[in-house]
Amino acid sequence: MQISLWLSITAVLVAAACSSGGGEERAAPEPPPADRDIHSFARPWEARVTHVTLDLTADFTAKTLAGTATLSVERAPSATEIVLDTRDLTIESATAQDGRALQFTLGTADPILGRPLTVELPRGVNAITIGYRTSPAAAALQWLAPSQTAGKAHPYLYSQGQAILTRTWIPTQDSPGIRQTYAARVTVPRELRAVMSAEQLTPDGSTAPGGRSFEFRMTQAIPPYLIAIAAGDLAFRQIGARTGVYAEPAVVEAAAAEFADLENMVTAAEALLGPYLWGRYDVLVLPPSFPFGGMENPRLTFATPTVVAGDRSLVSLLAHELAHSWSGNLVTNATWSDFWLNEGFTTYVENRIMEAVYGKPRADVFRVLGWRDLMVEIDRLGGMQSKDTILHVDLKGRDPDDGATSVPYEKGAALLALIEQTVGREKFDGYLRGYFERHAFKPITTTAFLADIRAHLLTDKAVEAKVRLEDWIYRPAIPDNAVVPQAAQLKGAGEQAQAFARGASASSLRTKDWSTQQWQYFLAELPPTLPADRLASLDQHFGLSERRNSEVLFDWLRITIRNHYEPAMPALERFLLSQGRRKFVRPLFEDLMKTDWGKAEALRIYAAARPSYHSVTVTTLDAIVK
User: Fold this and answer.
1) Topology at the third CATH level for domain 326-486
2) How far is 284 from 234, CA to CA, in rounded Å?
3) What is the pLDDT of residues 383-435, one digit of tens each?
4) Is residue 39 a contact partner of residue 164, using CB atoms and an 8 Å limit?
5) Residues that are catalytic
6) Beta strands 206-208 and 211-222: pairing type?
7) Cis amide linkage into residue 163, ω under 30° from 0
8) What's the pLDDT tens digit per position in 78-129?
9) Whole-prediction pTM value?
10) Which CATH number fits domain 520-622: 3.40.50.740, 1.10.3720.10, 3.40.1080.10, 1.25.40.320?
11) Closest CA to 443 of 161, 223, 181
């Protein structure tokens, strides 16, 4: 049930009760819906946040954001209070729109969800202002010292709200199903520039006590995990009419050159999905501690510097984050068990964007590598019968971040590829565009998706039977009707790996003009066990331990750990200390911890690296390196 519908039903029930029992009588509270978000304390069917106005000051010494959040509230007539999500926030006050103090209580802390903040709602109160400050250890915020930046001269701040970390810096209803507009005024030291996932009203800022203030607004309702902030020594380079890149001055030129195809990607996405509705599409290249490849914050994707490879070979990440402008930002998973609706659609659309901009052969390569990643991930999760291979994953009692495996991405995309093949591309493309139009700016559950696709695409029971939707979505493993991708461009790389396995010398391998993805495939196709002299010949001939390309280096380092190839260990340590992208560091530390010799190395390196990693990465690694 959609949130607006919850409130509409409540209002109807209240009106009926009042008409039969007198104007002062209030309806009994509406029971929670069956598909409520178990990762939020909020009760949006009683009272829900529709808009957030922030007025915050960043203190880089104390490592806190402090100020106010004014929340506009849509309430049922029976509502007497509103419940918000918080975690590690110091709540200093709560007031109504007329300035009167409101009673508030913080509930018992939950290790995953934080603490509910319950604020009274007297009759007629439709906006509340919360005075608060964040903790220096707020999980969504990373405060970087100048030494941790490219320029080494100024500090840096950035946020990462997905999945349920926005509550560590904003007291609001932190559920993907409770979409909110927002506005903000953010004050930072005068030498810094603030940016947010919103329209910039004051690009150059304005003088304020202790620094400069920047103002923003987001007039389209978004899930709270997409409210994002960054502040640092930032420069900007325009790429196209509505695209550009922000980064530190030392990085911005290389990033702009790397992302030169950004405007073409937006145009290709529009041709497939319909108009881009967010105004601008800019990218912020963050310092290397950023835990993800990218984060699809509207109008301003946050991206890891590890994609700046110098040859535009890793820009599929931008196609992915751009695709989220429709799948995720426009139509959002209502709960975190529905996460596959965000990522499966996005991964499918990413590949279609890559095909439109770079051609089908290159897109096929990415599909093959994605499929290989899925098989590796399923093995890591415990095999095909693991419950974590189910698309509509059970996250009860778990951090929703536990569901952020390759499964919702690649299994979800494989399901859509199967549907495309079954009904034909033209018909499926028509469905895609209609899907985003019908559900624009709304949350959606898996149940609602099934109803939609059955009503608008899989109307023939025999056709639906060929797809086996229920098997794909609610059961573990990969159904045997999956379309296993193939890529002609990878054939040669596979043959060269086989030749090397049979004893061919590294110097005899035919690798001229190989792409990053061909190198990845070659490394993945090598035998799991290789003697040191064979690894040395590869390393010496192709300089693998010195590769700048993060994807190739990562794949090579996994091989060297597996075979305890000592000459690559300095490169491994440099890599783990120089970036905190979880996709890379988690498998490498896992690999080290599987070996007797590697455990000591993992503990030593992690002790040095941990202070520079974001809390998202730290939370994952603390459970591994121990």
Assistant:
1) Neutral Protease; domain 2 (1.10.390)
2) 9
3) 999 999 999 999 999 999 999 999 999 999 999 999 999 999 999 999 999 99
4) yes
5) 321, 409
6) antiparallel
7) yes
8) 999 999 999 999 999 999 999 999 999 999 999 999 999 999 999 999 999 9
9) 0.92
10) 1.25.40.320
11) 223
